TrEMBL record:
Belongs to the class-IV pyridoxal-phosphate-dependent aminotransferase family. SUPFAM superfamilies: D-aminoacid aminotransferase-like PLP-dependent enzymes (SSF56752). It comes from Photobacterium lipolyticum. The keyword Lipoprotein does not apply. GO terms for molecular function: 4-amino-4-deoxychorismate lyase activity; pyridoxal phosphate binding. GO terms for cellular component: cytosol. This is Aminodeoxychorismate lyase. The keyword Lyase applies. InterPro entries: Aminodeoxychorismate_lyase_IV, Aminotrans_IV, Aminotrans_IV_CS, Aminotransferase-like, BCAT-like_C, BCAT-like_N, Class-IV_PLP-Dep_Aminotrnsfr.
């Protein structure tokens, strides 16, 4: 079902700025047993993104009620997606006078292959395409996702499950639709994401979870070689949670020490 500003509807005006310029942001939420998982973090990120893009705030209370209502229709697992557009208005790029924020809530079934990925782990390719440096937008989950569309095509052409993506300076950033963590000894590393990448909700949650363990976390800028020296690697997003990486570029990563600790904490929340 697709709800636009709370009403069942499937079309948006051609002049909507999300369509014209990708002028908006979104989040994709896992539903478990009728509840939106990590809703406070999803809401926080939407609020931060709306504020960073100077979009007029929608009615957050009404949005929360809608998300919980849609989630309640899933007795097992499901997905609810929230997309916020600046709406119709302005002239050209200028958004002056454009304050008719549009909120689109849709829901989907959960991608079943993630259950197998969580259990067995996945092998990653290494993308030849590089992410640009976009400090104005770094971390935001905005609607301009053409880099990811092209990266996904590269995956599909190569038959990869997912791939490590580097920026133009050769630093490891993320994968096509997830954040990346790796461990050496008691230190867990994750890319800094100050010039590129998405600040994932699951990344934020994993960062919180690490704080209560024997591991410490470092935000880093590392090349592929740095990543490949890891003892353990895992990737995260809101729908698949934590997925172990078994192999990259001919190197095996059989250890699952930190991911086991973090999964225990994740599933006890
Ligand atoms: C692209 C979307 O959402 C992202 C992708 C996934 C996924 O493919 O599993 C999960 C959460 C988001 N990071 C989307 O259109 O929902
Ligand atoms: C490029 C990219 N990085 C990271 C993520 C992970 O974000 P989240 O944990 O909020 O799902 C996503 C999900 O859309 C993504 O598309």
């Amino acid at each position: 079902m697709v709800l636009i500003n709370g009403c069942e509807q499937t079309t948006v005006p051609v002049a909507d700025r999300a369509m014209q310029y990708g002028d908006g942001c979104f989040t994709t939420i896992l539903v478990e047993l009728g509840k939106p998982r990590l809703w406070p973090l999803h809401l926080q990120r939407l609020q931060k993104n709306v504020s960073a893009l100077y979009i007029t705030e929608p009615d957050w209370g009404a949005l929360a009620r809608l998300v919980h209502q849609r989630a309640a229709s899933y007795s097992d697992k499901g997905v609810v997606k929230v997309l916020i557009s600046r709406g119709v208005g302005g002239r050209g790029y200028s958004a002056i006078g454009c304050d008719d924020t549009q909120v689109v809530v849709s829901d989907f079934s959960w991608p079943q292959h993630y259950a197998q990925w969580q259990q067995q782990g996945i092998e990653l390719g290494v993308s030849e395409q590089r992410l640009g440096l976009v400090p104005m937008l770094a971390g935001l989950k905005h609607l301009n996702r053409l880099e990811q569309v092209l990266l996904k095509r590269e995956l599909e052409c190569n038959g990869w499950q997912d791939a490590v993506v580097l920026d133009v300076n050769g630093h490891v950033m993320e994968t096509t639709a997830s954040n990346v963590f790796w461990r050496n000894g008691k230190i867990i590393y994750t890319p800094e994401l100050d010039v590129s990448g998405v600040h994932g909700v699951m990344r934020a949650h994993v960062i919180e979870l690490i704080a209560g363990t024997e591991y410490c976390l470092e935000f880093v800028k590392k090349t592929l070689e740095g990543l490949l020296c890891a003892e353990e690697i895992f990737i995260t997003n809101a729908l698949m949670a934590l997925v172990p990486v078994t192999r990259i570029d001919g190197r095996d990563f059989p250890e699952r020490t930190a991911i086991s600790v973090l999964n225990k904490r994740l599933y006890s929340c």
